[in-house]
């Protein structure tokens, strides 16, 4: 009888009340430790930290994956002599995350102290490009002020490395300083080609740079080649600069004066990267950060961009795609943003690269996804070596306990050093020394004149052929380029005096040469197609016969019936 009131009391108590009473007995510190542990698990996954993975491998690092054409003697010899590419990469333990590495590069970076020597290059359309030079004497002798003399002597054979920074980056970026300092310390002459409107230089024309604009790089390379004809030229592109560099190498092919190049963390396919950077919350943070950087660039040149582009849309842009829609697409007169991304992607030009090219990418790059890497195209090209690492972030690749060095900087330094002494490059240097190359004007953004490429593609050229010139800010004078002053003969013969005195004859010869330059590539392309498509032609003939036979057969049958309407077979046997 005494159990009944007790059972009734228990039935009136809610099980949730009992649960809360039990939870209240647990100390608050235990809840704090549990919440901290769950937060660390979330943070470890959200930031893609790989510290435990490195710990399990005893911090041995991950091997570098190399993709290249196994039939290429150049690639095999270069890879055999590049010990860093054959080794492993281990990220700094306290930066074991692509996001931590990228953020550390952007906010701290630990760049070495250096001072450039600046020269201003005036482009054909009136635009100004800042060229920042750094040489061995600048690094060894300490920082120095701007000097009146050029960064390299005219007859100096010291190789020159041209650096193309990334989006909204210039020569003051930490990774650019790391690269320039290490190359200059090894005896290279380094020149950083800042994009238009960057490096503390104002826009002086209505032309702005973008991810596919290669004309500025082409003019800079031609100018340096003309100024220092004895010096071998190399180039390094980073991020968007790598996309511009690879696109330029594919456009000019064997006509480029460069003897070697390196593309670091290239986006390759801008359309894929655009989809990727808007896929996850972390990538959207990068998208927003890059958009703010571009809006800051636009604010610096508001007087020009507000007149040429949709300024209200630029101010309200919340993503790179919005900015490109209101600014880049309008400035370069693209139909859509996707059209701009497709035409500016360097992946379309990989197969035409004709110089040794080292491509370095991290598979965990939070900005330029590995999904856009053209694996097969790079493997088919005998001049390309693609090196990928599981970790590294975007342009970071910090290594060592103190994060004092960048791995890809050492790789580029070693790669160029191997190319410099490679016997495969000597023939190319001699060939370039014998004739001054004249690169094809192949940018689609430059109108309205036509240029026919070797592959039969018709593109736009510049309106006028205006000589570029360089302005030294320390001397405040201009020196005109003299690459168009003389005429180079392929056979080395002298020019007849009668031709000099007869301008009409020279004009006619120039017109004939221009017509020949237009006809020969197209004719060669047609001949190549005719040789390779005989089977396709016969297949087309077969398809044409099959598809038109119902109509042709009915017509032929009606004609035969009318023709032999009065025909009688018995008449054949009559005598």
Question: Describe it for me?
Answer:
This protein is an alpha/beta fold. Among the domains are: 277 residues, Rossmann fold (3-Layer(aba) Sandwich); 74 residues, no CATH class. Helix content is 47%, strand content 13%. The chain is built from 23 helices and 17 strands. The strands form 4 sheets. An 11-stranded mixed beta sheet has the order 2-11-10-9-8-6-7-5-4-16-17, with helices on both faces. Strand 14 and strand 15 form a beta hairpin. The longest helix has 30 residues. It is globular and about 115 Å long. About 15% of the residues have low confidence.
List the helices and strands and how they pair.
Layout (H helix, E strand, L loop, with lengths): L2 H10 L2 H10 L3 H19 L4 H6 L5 E2 L1 E4 L4 H9 L1 H4 L1 E2 L8 H10 L9 E6 L5 E7 L1 H5 L19 E5 L9 H12 L3 E5 L21 H13 L5 E6 L1 H13 L5 E7 L5 H7 L4 H20 L1 H7 L2 H5 L4 H13 L4 H8 L12 E6 L12 H6 L3 E6 L8 E2 L5 E2 H15 L1 H12 L14 E4 L5 E4 L7 E4 L4 E4 L16 H5 L1 H30 L1 H30 L12
Parallel strand pairs: 6-7, 6-8, 8-9, 9-10, 10-11
Antiparallel strand pairs: 1-3, 2-11, 4-5, 4-16, 5-7, 12-13, 14-15, 16-17
Pfam families: Hydrolase_4 (PF12146)
GO molecular function, one term: short-chain carboxylesterase activity
Keywords: Membrane, Transmembrane, Transmembrane helix
